[in-house]
Design goal:
The protein is an alpha/beta fold. It is 32% helix and 25% strand. The longest helix has 18 residues.
Length: 237
Amino acid sequence: MEDRTPIISFKNADIINGEATVIYGLNMDVYPGDFVYIVGKVGTGKTSIIRTIIAENPLRRGKGQVCGFDLVNMKEKEIPFLRRKMGVVFQDFQLLMDRSVEENLLFVLKATGWKSENEMQARIKTVLEAVGMDRKAHKMPHQLSGGEQQRIAIARSLLNDPQVIIADEPTGNLDNETANGIMKLLTSINKEKGTAIVMVTHNRQIFEKYPGRVMVCREETCIEQMEDDVIDLELTI
């Protein structure tokens, strides 16, 4: 039987950025296997939602649960355990530039409690193969193209077999052809592994070419658009 327990759930949640409320009354459920876009103009609170999901921003009003953790009552010591249940992909890759691809991934595994050298090497091999980068393990990040660096970042997000991947403008620094390659990779992970994906983007072409659920942020709200609705935002074409 299909699991309809949401991985991420917000009920009447106010999303803050610093001390300012940027979105009032967010209602959003993300289920296993979902592909959800969060779209909107710059400054409408898209990234603040992401920061709330990963417990970087506190949730002070409303209800929020992510991967079984209650965001309102979460203790600081619980945050690392929450983050191990999800993968996060950033626009600027955030790779450690002073170590190889393999060492980047090894660093994350050790930081999240892995001990066995053989198991870590096997996991690194698996995730690099999954993103088509198994021949690049010994390369330094500066030796890779932007698209290759983002593939490594996606491999890193897969290390702990996450329930959901959070992707904040993962194609923002890439040309169209490279961005399409990253989107094909994310959609294949979503379909083949059933990993839920929540992706922030301002690029209309992306969410029109690779369909998913669409949450639109504007005027201090974030509301899901139904299939027949026309999204009239002035987004990147």
